[in-house]
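Project outcomes to date are best conveyed with an example. Our students and postdoctoral researchers have been running inverse folding experiments weekly, and each run begins with a structure described purely in tokens. The record below, which covers 308 residues, was selected by the lab manager from last quarter's runs and is presented without edits.
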């Protein structure tokens, strides 16, 4: 069971890292990222069998495509020549919620040997794919965690249950993979529903770091007009996570609604004691400075938080 949260949580570190991977241009007037520092790659091009209600495949449209191991290695060589520091390897999901990575193990290893950090988003993880990723010695595995059955079925269109996501985390841990679970706050049509159960999975099973993102309604999707959860509810969830996982690196990831909403939850994450924020507003950076925190910028995925 999740314990009660104290009203005030003091930071355990005097440092904070702001992540700005090159997959998205970032210039806050204090730091500018490089376009090829970190890129997102889809191994399925634009194809996805799930077409989740919050995405409808749109997240694939901005990714580079490499649908064969050979094309992935070639792309890796081109990116390495441009100074690429890391990549996210993902793609559209199959009807069982997995990303078809089985044939890419050797290619992932070659990219790693090029000096590129390799973060893999495998969807629901199987034992077979866990072995492939472990042999490739990928840098990090980013796992979605969903703690509500209705959300899985109604949003992801999958005949799965929260225990399937817990099992995915267990498989990653048993295989010795470095794992960074992601929890999407407000995934159930803008409501917080299974997020605390997903957090409890991390508490019970362990992880190398934890990343929160907040539902960002996308044009052209079923959830385009959905309102994200109230910022007070999001902040309470953040407080709970920091209180119950005092020693785990926690990041606010790249997805969240823009504007004053984003600035409020970013600054709350600073105050609560999150270790990292991706693409922070300048006001958030200045707030962190006012709090006396030592600030570092990195141009890779925030899931890599403990790898430096």
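After processing, the design step wrote out the following sequence:
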């Amino acid at each position: 069971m999740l314990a009660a949260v104290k009203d005030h949580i003091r930071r355990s570190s005097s440092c904070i890292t702001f992540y700005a991977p090159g997959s998205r241009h970032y210039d806050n007037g204090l730091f500018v990222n490089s376009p090829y520092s970190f890129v997102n790659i889809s191994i399925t091009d634009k194809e996805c069998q799930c077409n989740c209600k919050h995405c409808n495949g749109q997240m694939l449209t901005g990714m580079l495509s490499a649908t064969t191991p050979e094309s992935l290695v070639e792309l890796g060589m081109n990116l390495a020549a441009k100074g690429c520091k890391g990549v996210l390897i993902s793609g559209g999901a199959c009807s069982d919620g997995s990303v078809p990575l089985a044939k890419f193990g050797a290619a992932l290893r070659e990219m790693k040997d090029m000096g590129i950090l390799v973060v893999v988003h495998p969807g629901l993880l199987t034992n077979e794919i866990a072995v492939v990723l472990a042999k490739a010695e990928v840098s990090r595995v980013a796992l979605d965690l969903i703690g509500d059955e209705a959300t899985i079925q109604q949003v992801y269109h999958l005949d799965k249950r929260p225990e399937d996501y817990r099992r995915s985390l267990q498989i990653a841990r048993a295989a010795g993979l470095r794992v960074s679970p992601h929890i999407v706050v407000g995934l159930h049509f803008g409501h917080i529903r299974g997020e605390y159960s997903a957090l409890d999975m991390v508490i019970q099973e362990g992880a190398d770091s934890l990343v929160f993102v907040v539902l960002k309604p996308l044009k052209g999707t079923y959830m385009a007009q959905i309102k994200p959860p109230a910022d007070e509810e999001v902040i309470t969830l953040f407080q709970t996570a920091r209180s119950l996982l005092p020693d785990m690196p926690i990041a606010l990831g790249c997805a969240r609604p823009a504007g004053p909403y984003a600035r409020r939850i970013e600054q709350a994450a600073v105050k609560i004691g999150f270790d990292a924020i991706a693409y922070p507003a300048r006001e958030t950076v200045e707030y962190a400075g006012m709090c006396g925190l030592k600030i570092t910028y990195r141009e890779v995925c925030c899931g890599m938080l403990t790898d430096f």
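The radius of gyration is 18 Å. Residues 1-11 have pLDDT under 50 and may be disordered. The training component of this project remains on track.
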